[in-house]
Specification:
The radius of gyration is 20 Å and the shape is elongated. It contains six helices and 15 strands. About 30% of the residues lie in helices and about 35% in strands. The strands form four sheets. The protein has a five-stranded parallel sheet with strand order 2-1-3-4-5, with helices on both faces. A five-stranded antiparallel sheet has the order 10-9-8-12-11, sandwiched between helices. The chain has a three-stranded antiparallel sheet with strand order 13-14-15, with no helix packed on it. The two termini are about 30 Å apart. The model is unreliable at about 240-245 (pLDDT under 50). α1 (about 10-25) packs across α4. It has two domains: about 1-125, 3-Layer(aba) Sandwich (Rossmann fold); about 130-240, LytTr DNA-binding domain (OB fold (Dihydrolipoamide Acetyltransferase, E2P), Beta Barrel), CATH 2.40.50.1020. The protein is an alpha/beta fold and about 250 residues long. It has helices at about 10-25, 40-45, 65-70, 110-125, 180-185, 225-240; strands at about 1-5, 30-35, 50-55, 80-85, 100-105, 130-135, 140-145, 145-155, 155-165, 170-175, 190-195, 195-200, 205-210, 210-215, 220. Keywords: Phosphoprotein. This is Stage 0 sporulation protein A homolog. It comes from Mediterraneibacter faecis.
Length: about 250
């Protein structure tokens, strides 16, 4: 089941958006849609694990961006969509990783098109991608999104993971060489930051002076030889992540 939140102080638009979402989802996809008419109401339900959130950018005391910042502190995985009538995106809005901006004056056809893209992204997010790790006769299936980085070790590589559910770090040893693991994962947002490790772009929360900070607060250096390609690929990753139809 998909859990969806709509937070907008415009009751008519909230009802309209709920109707359109149900039309796009159809009867084949089970969903639960929670409606909130203020940022305060929405903030009060942050313990719910939403898969998709629609936030009005202009509300009362707690507007969309304030609600989004609080929401992202608890949920980094949900698809976030800002709804707006007139306000254009500001640079700071990208800190909360919005997937789309829905203009309230969209035509029916444009709204259908945008909602299909949004719903497809939500469904895609729920389908975890795994790799199979073998070591000394043991086989483990690991969710790629939980991997922060992979480092070189004497007989293969070490897969470093961070679980957001229990806020714990884990490590798995693999018999596969780092270079072979990279070939398997390079199309899944992984890149060499150093000859001895590859980093998952999805796990990066900051880069400053060629020092990467990961979501588990591990810090890694970007080597001089890898700097150009790493920054180029990370920029492409961010560009694709925040790309939106105009």
């Amino acid at each position: 089941m998909y859990r969806i939140a709509i937070c907008d102080d415009d009751i008519a638009y909230t009802e309209y958006l709920e109707k359109k979402i149900k039309e796009v989802l159809g009867k084949s996809e089970r969903s639960s849609i929670c409606k909130y008419y203020s940022g305060e109401e929405f903030i009060g339900d942050l313990e719910l694990e939403f898969d998709l959130v629609f936030l009005d950018m202009q509300m009362g005391e707690i507007d969309g961006i304030t609600a989004a910042i609080k929401f992202r502190k608890r949920n980094q995985d949900a698809v976030l969509v800002f709804c707006t009538g007139i306000q254009l995106p500001q640079p700071e809005f990208f800190d909360v990783q919005p997937f789309r901006y829905l203009m309230k004056n969209y035509t029916e056809n444009k709204m259908d098109e945008e909602l299909k893209n949004i719903i497809n992204k939500m469904i895609e997010n729920k389908k975890e991608v795994y790799i199979v790790v073998r070591n000394d006769g043991r086989m483990d299936k690991i969710a790629i999104d939980n991997i922060t980085y992979i480092s070189n070790i004497k007989r293969g590589c070490c897969i470093h993971m961070f679980s957001k559910k229990d806020n714990q770090c884990y490590e798995f040893a693999s018999n596969k060489k780092l270079i072979d693991t990279y070939e398997e994962l390079k199309n899944q947002s992984f890149e060499y930051a150093h000859n001895s490790y590859i980093v998952n772009f999805k796990a990066i929360i900051g880069i400053k002076n060629d020092v990467i900070t990961l979501e588990d607060l591990t810090t890694l250096n970007i080597s001089r030889s890898k700097r150009k390609i790493f920054h180029s690929r990370f920029a492409d990753y961010l560009g694709g992540k925040y790309k939106r139809n105009r």
